[in-house]
Specification:
about 70% helix; elongated; 9 helices; mainly alpha; about 200 residues; homodimer; 2 strands
């Protein structure tokens, strides 16, 4: 199909598609003349992925590049795959220091993670920012939040294991992690209403 | 204190404080001369809140205005409070249509919520975007995510109930909802690593 048809199929305007091409987020079509190129099913899939990451996942251009590189070269082992996926995912604060209370939380939970992991740093930054904003966040609340997110992670891992081969597993982990965050945020709002309505 | 001291105390530059003043996000100080004003503890608290919402919560200026208005006029009943809080919170897709699968999910969960609630619409948008990006999201996975987020919501509501009066409860619900989202996102990444390391 031509670029105008690619735009129609994906509902992404031609000027945005040209921007994706310039930024290297969309692979070039097969040139059929000096000014025309032909696009196929893999271009449709790529455009949908990039649009979802940028518009709904809140990922910047650099983040999309990292995600696409990770998807292009999935490592063979599952646990390594998660490491590569997490490095590709943009997570604010993942270079900052580890706070004492987060180190204590991880130890108390007995989670077998590297105590200096980027996710531990990102958690320290997020907890610090919440405290700065005056949110009461007790050690008990943090622990209950952590236990609920372990249930979420179990669903995530089941989906990755069910994927057909390392490329599909990588897609599920990276894209699933980014795109399910807004689903969880919306579910939390809805659950707050449900839990509040049920309490006397 | 003078504006330079307010900047030092909050570690927010003077030009950003002037921007907050112009946008009405920070209340004016008490004028002590034609060019000087005096700021107090309530200004320090307000600057910390605004900065946390903007920098870490990803809330825009309009969203901060809604949140500040809601905090200024908390309703007397707890369930109403949650409604006001949710209206103030910026949630993408909360004006869109309700999808059939999300309507089915809410019915299956038996959650006592308005079937056309903004959170139901936001959830429909988020699930649709995840599907568009090629994330496999089965009805069973969605249900398990929902149950985990009900546990999160129970912690949220306990914190709001423990607050001292309606103003503090409003602060906990609104600010806690925005600022705990990044905490949950970071916990999810960390829990994925922990769950993956534990599985054989």
């Amino acid at each position: 199909m031509r670029i105008s048809e690619l735009a129609e199929t994906t509902r992404v305007p031609v000027h945005t598609l040209k921007y994706y091409l310039r930024e290297g987020l969309l692979m070039p079509g097969e040139a059929t003349s000096r000014t025309r190129a032909e696009y196929g099913a893999e271009h449709v899939e790529r455009v949908r992925l990039v649009r979802a990451l940028v518009e709904h996942g809140g990922v910047g251009i650099a983040g999309v590049h990292s995600i696409l590189s990770a998807l292009a070269a999935p490592p063979p082992s599952r646990h390594e795959l998660l490491g590569v996926a997490h490095c590709a995912l943009p997570t604010p604060g993942d270079q900052g220091p580890v706070s004492e209370e987060v180190a204590d939380l991880v130890a108390e939970l007995g989670w077998p993670v590297w105590p200096e992991a980027p996710a531990v740093r990102a958690l320290s930054a997020a907890v610090g920012a919440a405290r700065e904003a005056g949110v009461p966040l007790s050690a008990g609340s943090l622990r209950r939040y952590a236990e609920a997110m372990a249930d979420v992670a179990a669903v995530d891992l089941d989906a990755a294991l069910a994927a057909d081969g390392p490329a599909a597993a990588m897609h599920t982990v990276v894209v699933g992690t980014v795109m399910v965050d807004p689903v969880l945020v919306a579910l939390r709002r809805l659950a707050q209403e449900a839990v509040s309505a049920r309490r006397p």
